[in-house]
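Lab channel / #folding
Pinned by the channel admin:
"Please post every new chain as: sequence first, then the structure tokens as a reply. Keep commentary short and put observations after the output so the thread stays searchable."

First post following the new format, from NK:
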Amino acid sequence: MYDSVWYNSLTKPFLQPPAWIFTPVWIILYGVILTSIIIYAITPSKKDKTNGYVYLIIHMIFNLLWSPIFFLLHKINIALFVILIMCITLILMIYKFFSISKLAGTILLPYLCWIIFAFYLNIQFLRLN
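Reply from TO:
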């Protein structure tokens, strides 16, 4: 999926996790995201849920864009902008989900931590390379 020669040539940030960790972490996180979406969707509410879905869609579009921009196009600076948008939309999504269901919002907090960590790594990749 990505240019491993280019990636392996990069200077890695100090806190860069080993490559094997990413697949299990993302599997767990996508399960958490799906669970949160289901809880949000099925929770009865008189509040409008539209904004939560809009934030989710925008967030997931940028989530899907990050890897090709970073790994295929080698645009670390654009990837940084993309992950910044991911952070912002995820915070908005958590806020909206929490307003409908405290559980739906709360279980997204580990995902937010991971995205903030990924943002840090992206900054470091840009700085070091």
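NK: Residues 21-128 form one domain.
TO: also worth noting, Helices lie at 4-9, 22-42, 50-72, 76-100, 102-106, 109-128.
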